[in-house]
Amino acid sequence: MFAKPEAMIFDMDGTLFQTESLLIPAYHATFDEMHREGSYTDETPDENIIIGCLGMLLPEIWRRVLPDANEQVRQRADELFVRYELEYLEKGYGELYPGVAEILNRLKASGIRLFVASNGLEGYVRGVARMKGITPLFEELYSAGEHQTSSKVDLVRLLLERHNLRDAWMVGDRSSDVEAGLKNNLTVIGCDYAGFGDGSELDGSHVRIRSFAELPDLYA
């Protein structure tokens, strides 16, 4: 068994937010635009490639989605993708997983300090939290884009140091979350419901949950 934490640190995509509900329309809009302007002329890469890259930093994502393209093409894809994600977010695209807002409210009311640590861009992470009404529930939102960290391990370490946290749970769905938790001596709760990774994605987690709704019982 593991102790009750003073804080919980959540990944955003695939943990709190159903990323594909925003990502897929923004992804296709990106390549439609690139086809129109002539900056990319091949067929749109399979959307499952980018879905499989969730949790990575954006430069690595585009290297995998466009392995044969030059850096200029990748940068253009990145620029358009970020623009369309924010635009579609403002239009109401994207959903939290069932029960997320209610459960976060309950955890906060019980005295747990709540944080987000995401490899996404600052505007995206803060935009999702703002548009979905959960910003007030968190003490702070940390993103690789804002803090220019090279890994989630470093991002979580920064968060722990700044907020003087000694005992926390790292809650996430990707291997980067598991690594960030273990290397910072945290209890790792693996979220096994997004379906983005393979079966080994959450190896090393102290426990796996099949829905976000399991978290309060696990804490209790």
From TrEMBL:
The name this protein goes by in its record: HAD family hydrolase
Domain of life from the UniProt record: Bacteria
Source organism of this protein record: Paenibacillus mesotrionivorans
Keywords of this entry: Hydrolase
Keyword Hydrolase included in the entry's annotation: yes
The keyword Hydrolase is annotated on this UniProt entry: yes
First-tier enzyme category under EC: hydrolase
Record EC number: 3.-.-.-
